[in-house]
Structure formats: C-alpha cells, structure tokens
Amino acid sequence: MSERLKFPADFLWGAATAAYQIEGSPTADGRGRSIWDTFAHTPGRVRGGDTGDVAAEHYKEFRSDVALMAELGLPAYRFSVSWPRVQPGGSGPANQAGLDHYSRLVDELLAHGITPVLTLYHWDLPQELEDAGGWGNRDTAARFAEYAGLVAARLGDRVPMWTTLNEPWCAAFLGYASGEHAPGHTDPALALRAAHHLLLAHGQGTAALRSALPSSAEVSITLNLCAVMPGATSPEATDAVRRIDGLGNRLFLDPLFRGQYPVDVRRDTARLTDWSFVRDGDLDVISQPLDMLGINYYSPTLVDVGEPQAGPSPWPACEDVRFVHQPGPTTAMGWAIDAKGLRAVVHRVHEEYAPVPLMITENGAAFDDQLAADGVRDAERISYLRDHLAVVHEAIESGVDLRGYFVWSLLDNFEWAYGYSKRFGIVHVDYPTQRRVWKDSAYWYREVITTNGIDVHE
Ligand code: GBH
C-alpha cells in the first residue's frame, strides 16, 4: 500500500550549498584569504590534502548551475556569501567586484523564478580577522555586523530571506576546541568565548540587517541541533544527555529565545572559564526578535559516560562522556540514519522555545555513490530523504509551524575535513571534468517538488 503525503501549498522547497564548499576561484575579483584557505593548505588538516581551490567551480559556472536548478524545478536556493570576497581583509569598504558576483547570482536566480535564501557566514572567516584573534576577539562581532550591512545594502532589494550564521556550534567548537575545522585551535575555554562572540555577531548583525533591509525581509539564524538520547539507562547517562544537550542546543537556544545562558552549562564549565566575556547588555542584543529559525539535522546523538579521555574534543568539560554507536544503518560518514531524531528536535524547539516559524535549512546524507554510464543509483539517499520528509510532514500536521525544507546538498562538494571523499549532492560532480550528473535522488526530488508531496509505503 502506498500513501501520498501532500505538503502545504506555500511550503518552500529548496537545496543548499556553501561558498567555500563549491565556489573555487580563491583569488578571483580581489577575494582575500579565509581561515579555510589557510587550514586546507596546512598539511594533515584535510583528508587527501584536498582544498577548496577548485571545488565545483561554481564561481565560474554559476549560470549553468542556476539553469540546472531551474531544470530541477527548485523554488528556492540557499547559498552563502564568502566574507573575504566582500571584505578581503575582514574590514573596511566593500570590494565591489566581489559583491558584483553575488548580485549577478541573485539576478540569475530571480530571472529563473528561484528565491534566493542568503547565509552571511558559513565558516569562512577572513584570515586577517583570525590573525587578530578570530572569534575569540570580541571585535570580530562588530566586524561581522559591518560586513552584514554592506551585503544588505547591495542585495537587500532582491533577497527576501537572510541568515546571519550557519551552525555557530561548529564554528566555535570544531574550530576552537577539537581543531577539526579551521582555524584548528584546541582550547575549550577559547571555544566557549568564541561561541559567545558568534552569538553577539548574530545579534549585532541582525541589528545591522534590520536597519539596511526592507521591512518585508526575513532574518534568521541556522543551528545544528542535536537529538541527544541516553545510550544506557543510568543516572550518569541521563546526566550526560543534559550536558551534551546543554552545550549543543541550549547554549544557543537559551540566549537567542530566552535572553540567558543555561545556568547548568555555566556551572559545568566553570573550571574552564569565568564567563567574564559576557558583558551587560549582550544578551539583549543576542535575543532580539527573529523571523525564522533554521534547523540543520543529520543524525541522532547517543551518549553515556566512561573513563575520562584526554585529548581535544568539541565538548568542553565532557571528558567522561562517550558517544555511543547506535545500531542500524549508517551513512558514508558513519552517522546513524534515524529520522526520529529530526522529529524530537523539531517538536522540542516548537514546544520549548521558538515562537517563530521553523525551516529545515539542511538535511541529507553522504553515500558511496557509483557513477554509472547513465547516472547514479542512490536509492539509499532517496529513502533517507523520504523518511525525513515524512517526519516534516507529520510535524506540520501536528501543528508545528514548519515552512520549508532544503536538501543538503545541491552538488557534491568540499566536505570540510573530509575533502572530496564524501558526496552529499543530489547532483554528482565529476571533478576531473566538472560535469554534473543527476543522481536518481535529483529526479526523485524534482517529482517531490512538482507534486508537492511524497509517496510513503505503509
Ligand atoms: C553541516 O554541518 C554543514 O553546515 C555543511 O557545510 C556540511 O557539509 C554538512 O553538514 C555535512 O557535514 O558529536 O562531535 O560527532 C554538519 C554538522 C555537526 C554533523 C557535528 C555531525 C557530529 C558532532 N555536524 N555532528 S559529534
């Protein structure tokens, strides 16, 4: 038996990318260096020594990529602007040649009837700002607000949806605590400070956007929220859930929607920092009203406790927390496939926090795709997407104000520390030729969009 689930008529379907992961052209039109250029060019940081120097050559080929989006029937496209293209050194006047590129991209999208959904920061901090302390430096928040104002002044007349930051958890804790991402520091106290300055940047950036954008423009932030569940039935495992939920979710949701940091997280991390980087008035800036909350979800998180482990971790003061492998199918990243996590995250945010509409700004999976003569048979990706969309549908039915869904990703791309070894696209990129080949999931997603629904088997 097959059942057809229809989505609301105004549900927004899209696909997402990020600048460093697809653009290439690292010196075109006066672009400056970002922390990801430095990191990727440091031996040992990225698998296979891969860098974003060429990536999917989207900077050069954006017109044919927009034509591809139109063939896919995409109503919306979520992309990020590269800060060092707009301000090569992270401050001062705009580099008009860099802004011109995004202006052309936006015009090309609009000409094809595709709504541009713009993210200002997807991890590519100008290197000069990192040299001045990066996100550990409070001044970086002010620099971000200045940058936001420049982009809004140029594109605000045409871009209706704006996101300040993509996944500040990753920027802070993978960048400054575990060192898996740029700039590669391994200092948990610095990472907590960076998290605060990222939130402050969001707040100051939101204020800058509000004053530069037409009142119809929507402003949001995107968080990677974890569905944290106990990996054992013990009080210790329950407490591990509280701590990881605190650092992964509440550390961001509480300041944004309640104007305060979670007391338990401050207490758990007190041996690392006195939190004196939080100044009077900061939480008012951080908690100003938003129009939308973006959620990125990939996989659930199971936790327990064990012998304390030494060495870098993205989870400050959690040396005794163990991440438990959930039995069952996984993606090529080794991430468990379980759409129940998305359900938990969406309902939790709806019930406990957000008085604002929600949007799934990223969801998708990497698999070991094989390029065949006539395409890519990626049935696993289709089933991953279908299962997660069924959860989205169910959440909407049960009253969650969930406005749209963006698949990660439109194209195979530079998967950060994994380089080009992991493919998340619904469209395959043959890197030697830069040829785009539709995977079966791309045909499937086009059908989802045109029929505004999914088929599920009972
Ligand atoms: C997203 O982040 C990014 O926005 C995107 O650029 C990227 O390409 C895409 O996902 C695929 O990776 O418990 O320490 O193991 C991914 C967010 C956050 C997902 C960390 C995995 C594991 C946390 N990731 N999470 S840990």
UniProtKB/TrEMBL annotation:
Keyword flag Hydrolase: yes
Q: Does the entry feature the keyword Hydrolase, yes or no?
A: yes
Question: Which of UniProt's keywords are assigned here?
Answer: Carbohydrate metabolism, Cellulose degradation, Glycosidase, Hydrolase, Polysaccharide degradation
This entry's Enzyme Commission designation comes to 3.2.1.21
Superkingdom is: Bacteria
Record-level Gene Ontology MF annotations? beta-galactosidase activity
Q: Name one Pfam family in it.
A: Glyco_hydro_1
Report the catalytic activity: Hydrolysis of terminal, non-reducing beta-D-glucosyl residues with release of beta-D-glucose
Name the NCBIfam families for this protein: BGL
Q: Which PANTHER family match?
A: GLYCOSYL HYDROLASE, LP05116P
Similarity annotation: Belongs to the glycosyl hydrolase 1 family.
Please give the name of this protein.
Beta-glucosidase
- Organism this protein belongs to: Actinophytocola gossypii
